[in-house]
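Researcher: I'd like a structural prediction for the single chain below. Treat it as a standalone chain; there are no partners to consider.
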Amino acid sequence: MNIGLYYYNPFETGGCEKTMLERGKILSSLGHEITYIFGSKHPQINTIELWSEVGDVIHQDYLEKDFDIIIYDSIYNNKILPANNIIQIMNGNVIDGKESYNGSADRFVCVSEECQKQFKEKYGYDSVVIPNVINTEKIKKLAKEEYTIPKKKYNFVVVSRIDEVKGFDNLEKLISKIDSKTKDYQFVIVGSNNNFPRYVERLKQRFKKYNVIWEGLQNNPYKYMANADYLVQLSKFESQCMVMYESMIIGTPVIVTDFDNAKKDVTEARGFVLKQDLSNLDIDTILSKKGSFKFNCKRFSPHRLSSHY
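Model: Treating it as a single chain, here is the predicted structure.
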């Protein structure tokens, strides 16, 4: 079967890009012919290189090639595809209007129960839930690679596209409170945003008075997670936060905002869930609990979902 996976504007570090890669791998292993399609004139090169290891990669605003099935990732997509057995993937943020859907799609897949609920309430469509795909074995292997940054007493990592929606205003509040308690800390920030480089530079200026290391885009973010006391993800909204699950697979607890999957899966044994206004932020508890989290990472392995395809 000839399958096209379409995502309009691929970023370099996003969960959608990684899970499209894994979807393609699964479908290819089942004998299907895979083609990745993107519409952006400025795709992130490393994403394209990874996709090309699985199948063909083409740039088309409007599809000129027929496929047996098109799997269409809706987030940030603004192109209408021809009706040709389309499976539309809804990644979340439906209520916030960050996703566009193709009304001619034959089937809809949501990546979380909350996304499914929002999609039904706003548009009236039924859907199935298939969580995004995580390659557990690869993550654990990469987490063991050499890490060269000297560690402090308290070590935090942020693995994220550097974007306003990812909560960098709240991150600054968190860092400033830690800075007021101790200077023996560091925040390592892994990620970039080539589409908005001025925003990245402004953030670097704002954060320069703190102990922050900007590592930029990295092919292996997992070694950074493995060597941190906490992963921090203070997003304004998430549907299924990939880095949160990846961090817990490695065994690193998380500090996250109260998006639905965090409220569902982050227990007291796995980290801290903060309100969007940080009103429940307790720095003393965060610092004192460092190293005391013990949980079974295997609980997160079901996100490898090849059986659904």
